[in-house]
Amino acid sequence: MVGITALWLPIVLSAVLVFVASTLVHMVLRYHWGDWAKLPDEDRVLAAMREAGVRPGSYHFPRPASPKGMHEAVWQEKCKRGPVGFLHVLPSGGPAMGKNLALWFGYTLVVGVFVAYLASRTLDPGADYLEVFRIAGATAFLAYAGAEPVASIWKGVEWSTTLKHLLDGLIYALVTAGPFAWLWPG
Questions:
Q1: pLDDT digit string (tens) for 85-114?
Q2: Vertex 89, ends 83 and 93: CA angle to 5°?
Q3: Which helix (H) or strand (E) holds 89?
């Protein structure tokens, strides 16, 4: 068994490489640009939301007052008329990119720690490169992409968007697995 502290370098290196890979995915390749559509008559919709006092948070619409309300004709008619959906409202002022990037990097470190934990408990010192790569890559893929289909199943996210997120997860998993396999203690 390998001590998790012996894996500090692959944890940090994989986090940095995933951070760089995600930057390239979003800033250079830009295949996520079309994941979100623009609201029709956006200015009027945003003005109506401001007037209604919509605050930051997650909304489901239409939403009955209680679970029993889902059986009421009024709610069912609202659903038939539409629109039906989910809305995530952020604080005004635009995204806090510095904070979000710091949180993302923190998450990549946490993923690295869990990859190190699972690999250190399942692989011996001197394990074969490909064996380390498989365990580390599978663990990282689950962390970066494992829950992505849930958004399409329950929240109506387009499957094409989910497939792109799964591709991202695969890229991040490969970038994570490399340093672990390369730097695995002998």
A1: 999 999 999 888 999 999 999 999 999 999
A2: 140
A3: strand 85-89
